[in-house]
Design goal:
Strand content: 35-45%
Number of helices: 0
Helix content: under 10%
Number of strands: 3
Strand order of the largest sheet: 1-2-3
Structural class: mainly beta
């Protein structure tokens, strides 16, 4: 592995994230990245596996 560049405009945030799991709605503090005004979860809601920090994985910040 090698670092290509440091993203100065990205920061780590903890959000109270709400997700639908089947018929249940759950929420929990979740580690995310805030990048270009978008919130990108860094792990899955189902089993905690890592997610790539890509803009297409972002969620609406409403």
């Amino acid at each position: 592995m090698k670092v290509l560049k440091e993203l100065d405009e990205a920061k780590l945030v903890i959000v109270d994230l709400e997700v639908n799991l089947g018929n249940e709605v759950r929420s929990a503090p979740t580690l995310c990245a805030k990048y270009k005004g978008k919130i990108i979860p860094l792990n899955t809601a189902h089993d905690g596996r890592p997610i790539l920090m890509r803009e297409e994985n972002s969620i609406n910040n409403n």
